[in-house]
Amino acid sequence: MKFFIDTANLDQIKEAQDLGVLDGVTTNPSLMAKEGITGKENIIAHYKKICDIVTGDVSAEVISTDFDGIVKEGEELAKLHDQIIVKVPMIKEGVKAIKYFSDKGIKTNCTLVFSVGQALLAAKAGATYVSPFIGRLDDISTDGLNLIAEIRMVYDNYGFDTQILAASVRHTMHVIDCAKIGADVMTGPLSSIEGLLKHPLTDIGLAKFLADYKKGN
Ligand code: G3P
Questions:
Q1: What is the best residue among 2, 3, 5, 6 to mutate for testing ligand 1's pocket, by most ligand atoms within 8 Å of CB?
Q2: Does the pTM of the predicted model rise above 0.85?
Q3: Which parts of the chain fold into alpha helices (H)?
């Protein structure tokens, strides 16, 4: 299972990279704005900074909604760095663009996916990753994890290569449940990854080992 961090915050990206378990980064226009990164030139410069920190895939989102615009933007983004994955929304023009990019060997992440049907379309179009937003489904009383399970089943039925990237992960239990279901990737905040470390018996056990060591020295 790949771990991506879902942020545009360079300090958090560095911290996750230093932990040694980071496989990539996902961003979106909202995450960029949260860090105060606005305007095309600044956003592009920021993608380059992220690529310098991590060794894995970095999703960069297009903001066009028409085929020609998505293709133009996506091709520009893909040229920035070989780690860039072009993030395309699940809309009709987006599906066409994903097929276009797939035929050209440009990797894509189909974003804003909320149903199995949308995930099926993304796979048919040749998306490298599909991003079902589980947290946002949970927010409206719909089981986000169930969507991951259903997409897993459909993709396995037909052997689709598209990787299921569980997105809008909010906490550590999401990460664990996605792993049980068989999501290929999860993207979440640093706290969702660091939460995996925690167990009180580890802390108690370590404190005792260290105290006992001191007794003999
Ligand atoms: O990966 C998608 C993500 O950025 C959305 O997360 O927490 O805004 O639903 P959230």
A1: 6
A2: yes
A3: 10-19, 29-34, 40-53, 67-80, 92-104, 116-125, 134-139, 144-158, 172-181, 190-194, 200-215
Q: Which atom of ligand 1 is nearest to the CA of 26?
A: 1
Locus of tokens 């771990």: 3
pLDDT in tens, 137-193: 999 999 999 999 999 999 999 999 999 999 999 999 999 999 999 999 999 999 999
Contacts of 63 (CB under 8 A, 6+ apart): 29, 73
Distance, CA of 186 to CA of 3 (rounded, Å): 5
d(CA 85, CA 77): 8
In ligand 1, which atom is closest to the CA atom of 168?
A: 6
- The C-alpha atoms of residue 64 and residue 29 are separated, in whole angstroms, by 12
164 contacts 152 by C-beta, under 8 angstroms:
yes
